[in-house]
Description:
Blueprint: E1 8-14, H1 15-26, E2 28-30, H2 32-40, E3 44-54, H3 58-69, E4 73-78, E5 80-81, E6 87-88, H4 92-102, E7 108-112, H5 119-127, E8 131-136, H6 143-148, E9 151-154, H7 159-162, E10 163-165
Parallel strand pairs: 1-3, 1-7, 3-4, 7-8, 8-9
Antiparallel strand pairs: 2-10, 5-6
Amino acid sequence: MIKHKEQRVGVFIDVANMYHSAKNLYGSRVNFGEILKVAVAGRRLVRAIAYVIKSNNKEEETFFEALSNQGFEVKMKDLQIFPGGVKKADWDVGICIDVITLTSNLDVVVLVTGDGDYIPLIEYLKYHGHLTEIIAFGETTSANLKLYCDDFTDLSKNKKLFLIRK
Length: 166
């Protein structure tokens, strides 16, 4: 895919998806600042939004502040705990709504997630003439998501750049 400096880019990061992938695959944390640089690739950044789940953990406030300092708008949602202890938290619908709302100002949508639930969003964006890019860990990314997008960046191919060892 050709990337040029006049393209208007929006970057949307499913932080929980990336966090759990890095933790489960490599026992590491994600370097979101480096991901943002690769996602923008010298183009015009319109918005960079990191979607996080708030669980009232002391470490998370420092993490959320670090994301903000790296240039992300941080959107938070509380972790829901249901009777019986079941926990639920995801941003799928919120991310889709934000992307669709912002598309009139974007040429390229970069989703940082491996979640195959975003395939209908990718199809919608492509139908409306937008370029779609996925950035995620190859091992935990939906095979169909890789096929549907215009460009896929596998974070696992450069672990030194994209991971922070604990």
